[in-house]
Structure of Peptidase M15A C-terminal domain-containing protein:
Amino acid sequence: MFTTFLLAAAAAIPSGTSREFSTELAAASAPIRVESLDRRFDPGRTGFTVTTPGGFGIDYREFTLFLRPGETLSLTASEPVAWEGETSSMTLEWSAPDTPGHHRMTLTAEDGAQMSLHLVVMRARNTGDSEINGYRLGRYPDEPYLGLETYRAPEYFVEVSPGIEALPLSPHFRLGQFLCKQEGGDGPAYLVVSERLVLKLEQILEAANARGWRTDSFAVMSGYRTPDYNAGLGNGSYSRHIYGGAADIFIDTDGDGVMDDLNGDGRHDRADAAALYDLVEEMSGAGHESWLAGGLGEYGPNTRHGAFVHVDERGFRARWGR
């Protein structure tokens, strides 16, 4: 029988991030750039897997989970792991405090393999409110699309306190990459990010590097959008972006703000987005998506942006742009 123990976070950092952790985040906040095309890509995996209540497994050395205030997080490890000197176990529980903030725990397997989990307690939004703490959101649809839970209006949001933008969501993506680009007020901004989306992006990034496109992250042109900001772009009211489940991405290793020449034809155009699109489609056809199934769209450049690919985790197949 598995032993269950309560994990009490030793380093609770409510809203105002601690000086020590803030320093860590600041050091990590510089843009990710490729130093040498000869370096091998490190997928950032550890030697064991932790399964969440949502049914997805995490096997990365670093990952962020988002929780509601007071929520009890139950994790199941693929092998016995210990936290802060506790007895090794395969079932772990952690109770989130009632106040928003960031907490960090390190899980260690018997062979020394480690996983650093960032647990972010979110802030509640009053049902129906079009803002949270003065930050304008706009109106979410009253009813979820097709009755799906993934399209239900979010009730809790990540509070973007000073320094938290550099929080690592996974080995190759940071919270700040997914912030909405709308003008904020005097207080903090807010957003939601799907852990499933982050996992999907990590898998695509690993496949892109295996294809020979050496990069340590994707440029995220658009991640979370408030309903107001999304409407201002002329997009549909059920866009996956307003639920934190979509990202418009491209590969930009030289920092010029546009998609790299992925197909090697000497041009930066839609054909490069097509190459990335084809890679994701191949992964889907090979059964890589499973619970990560979602939307995939191809976009060419225009006067406002370069070529990019839309990826989301809506839970069912959708394709456009071809």
